[in-house]
Amino acid sequence: QDQLVESGGGSVQAGGSLRLSCRASEYTFSRSCIAWYRQVPGKEREMVSSISISGSTRYQDSVKGRFTISRDNAKTTLFLQMNSLKTEDTTMYYCSACEYWGQGTQVTVSS
User: What's the pLDDT score for residue 30?
Assistant: First the structure.
């Protein structure tokens, strides 16, 4: 049974927007380490943004002011609103809850 299921990736031109969603089980959504990661092939996976149960957020410097993480506790769903997308944002994005990972969703930003 999938604990985390991402959706919302796709292709967009630079400057455009995408909204990623991650539907979670109640158990995984209650974990304190819910976050979005991304991984460029050949490089280590990096955290893009995290959000605590109380709603406190953290962002990687490269996405501050462009990306917004949020959560809907009633629907056990995590979101990542990505605005002003850049070509360097192109990669796979993963939803994570501690040791649990989604399958990833591809984001492609063209110039």
Answer: 86
